[in-house]
Amino acid sequence: MSKSWLYLAIPPLLLIAAAFVLIQLFMDLDEDSVDRKAAERLTLYRQTILGEYQKYRYLPYMIARDPRATFALQSGRPIESANRFLQEMADNSGADLLYVMNEDGTTLAASNWQDELSLVGQNYGFRPYFKSAIKGEEGQFFAIGATLGEPGLFLARPTPVSGKPIGAAVVKVDMRPLEAAWAEGGETVFASDENGVIFLSSRPEWRYRTLSELPPGVRQTINTTRQYASQSLLPVSDQPVISSELVTIDGNMFRHKSAEVGLLGWTLHFLVPVEETRKSVLPIWAVTITLCLVYVVILLVLRGRRLRKTSVQLRQESADLKELNTRLVGEIQERRRIERELLEAQRGLARSNRLAAVGEMSAAVVHELSQPLSALRMFVAGTRKFLDKGDTGTAVENLKEIDGIQLRMANLTQELKRFARPGESRIEKIDLRESIRTAEKIVRPRFEETGVFLKMELPDTALETETAPLRVEQILVNLLRNGADAAAAEGEGQVRLIAQLIDNEIRLEISDNGPGIPEDLRERIFDPFFSTKTSSGGMGLGLAISMRLAEDLGGSLSVRTETPKGAVFELTLPAIESGMRPSSQTQDMDIEAAE
């Protein structure tokens, strides 16, 4: 009897052993999932911080160059016009504070000059950002304000920007909105500086606490620079946080991941409650216990059947089992029906995708062939006029151009086929200046038609690169034509192309003095079928195709706003030789409408 009970106990023991194995396995999977999520969130938060930094980095440089802001340094005393200018700049840029300091560190002009706690007259020569700026370097420092007591990121530049500095231009960026956004996200994230002091946190109670006990020398440096005012800077945990995967803070255990921000030695930390890595434990134990109970119930039922309990119970169980089987058969049939419908829907979706691909390629063909066709019409018209005048020499030259364009159109159709298969274009070593001149010939009729000037600045030194020349010409034709269209409405429309070699990289800048691209549309300008040419019938494919071609060639294509107006498209391609440097002399070419 005892031996039979031992045999009956084997299945529950095996279930319990399997539960332990599954718990360990799922805990490892949950930890991997949490770590992946932490890495993704850290990347997002890092980009957010760097985006905020890049947004305001240009301001100190602009102020340092503007005589309206630096006039107070030359006079050696506060100037109301400088204060008003800084106040207006702060209102327009969204910066927290803007101010100018002399070479002793005394503030002579500030955007809050009318406030009760004005920075004018205050001396901040002890701040590291001022010391860096007065040495001619870019100053960066996060600290609590010595006058207002509000934290922020201080960015400084020397003024003048070249030569011996006589002062510094400073912008203070308020990082608290970024911190508030973290808190609204409901996640536990914080940033620490190079000394391990937490200065940004989704949990306010952790702000200005440290990851470990600060050495006396570090604490003395912080006190000297008054970086965190009178904060106590106590450790947030009894154990060091920097190298630990599991940390305990305020009695709660977290799984810890960190990533370098790449700015001032900052580090981002992402904490996930350890319960999230153990969320599979309870379900597994619940299933195990349920299976054990089911096993016990089955044993009891079998024992009851062996004891031949009432036939009524047996018949009832048989009826229940039959009903269950009937429902199961019905569910299986329903599932098969749904699978058939799903398969048919998938086939219909595949057909729709193929039709959409055909439509997009057709639109791309129309868009890319319209430009060479326009050039063909202009050359044909010119050839007729030259033949009427008896100028057969010029007519023959035009026919050669026409022959070259039709050959380009034939090659262009092949390139559009390769648009879906980027790796098929022929790569060769070329002088990029020749591709620029070829593109200029293609768009020349458009510039003559619009009356827009085209100014090209090409270096005397060859711009050698290994690339697909026809694809480069496609990009340049699209960018030059767009520039002509944008500047056409201006009284003196102008498009400028500058080619130069910078750090083993060929950089082409194509700018115009047109109306520019609104900020809210700048992120969508490279989307397929998105166009700002509502009146000229633009199809929105040129920039999308150009962006993809640039990336296929190992380069990049970006856009920014020109000053005072217009847009600048920047195309970069890798150069062949790192030691090459372009000559300072350039070749200027101007095109205007024929009179």
TrEMBL record:
<protein>
    <recommendedName>
        <fullName>histidine kinase</fullName>
        <ecNumber>2.7.13.3</ecNumber>
    </recommendedName>
</protein>
<dbReference type="GO" id="GO:0000155">
    <property type="term" value="F:phosphorelay sensor kinase activity"/>
</dbReference>
<keyword id="KW-0547">Nucleotide-binding</keyword>
<dbReference type="InterPro" id="IPR029151">
    <property type="entry name" value="Sensor-like_sf"/>
</dbReference>
<dbReference type="InterPro" id="IPR036890">
    <property type="entry name" value="HATPase_C_sf"/>
</dbReference>
<keyword id="KW-0175">Coiled coil</keyword>
<keyword id="KW-1003">Cell membrane</keyword>
<dbReference type="InterPro" id="IPR017055">
    <property type="entry name" value="Sig_transdc_His_kinase_DctB"/>
</dbReference>
<dbReference type="GO" id="GO:0005886">
    <property type="term" value="C:plasma membrane"/>
</dbReference>
<dbReference type="InterPro" id="IPR005467">
    <property type="entry name" value="His_kinase_dom"/>
</dbReference>
<dbReference type="GO" id="GO:0005524">
    <property type="term" value="F:ATP binding"/>
</dbReference>
<keyword id="KW-0597">Phosphoprotein</keyword>
<keyword id="KW-0418">Kinase</keyword>
<dbReference type="InterPro" id="IPR033479">
    <property type="entry name" value="dCache_1"/>
</dbReference>
<dbReference type="InterPro" id="IPR004358">
    <property type="entry name" value="Sig_transdc_His_kin-like_C"/>
</dbReference>
<feature type="coiled-coil region">
    <location>
        <begin position="307"/>
        <end position="341"/>
    </location>
</feature>
<keyword id="KW-0812">Transmembrane</keyword>
<keyword id="KW-0902">Two-component regulatory system</keyword>
<feature type="domain" description="Histidine kinase">
    <location>
        <begin position="364"/>
        <end position="577"/>
    </location>
</feature>
<dbReference type="Pfam" id="PF02518">
    <property type="entry name" value="HATPase_c"/>
</dbReference>
<dbReference type="Pfam" id="PF02743">
    <property type="entry name" value="dCache_1"/>
</dbReference>
<keyword id="KW-1133">Transmembrane helix</keyword>
<dbReference type="InterPro" id="IPR003594">
    <property type="entry name" value="HATPase_dom"/>
</dbReference>
<keyword id="KW-0472">Membrane</keyword>
<keyword id="KW-0067">ATP-binding</keyword>
<dbReference type="InterPro" id="IPR003661">
    <property type="entry name" value="HisK_dim/P_dom"/>
</dbReference>
<keyword id="KW-0808">Transferase</keyword>
<feature type="transmembrane region" description="Helical">
    <location>
        <begin position="5"/>
        <end position="27"/>
    </location>
</feature>
<feature type="transmembrane region" description="Helical">
    <location>
        <begin position="282"/>
        <end position="302"/>
    </location>
</feature>
<dbReference type="InterPro" id="IPR036097">
    <property type="entry name" value="HisK_dim/P_sf"/>
</dbReference>
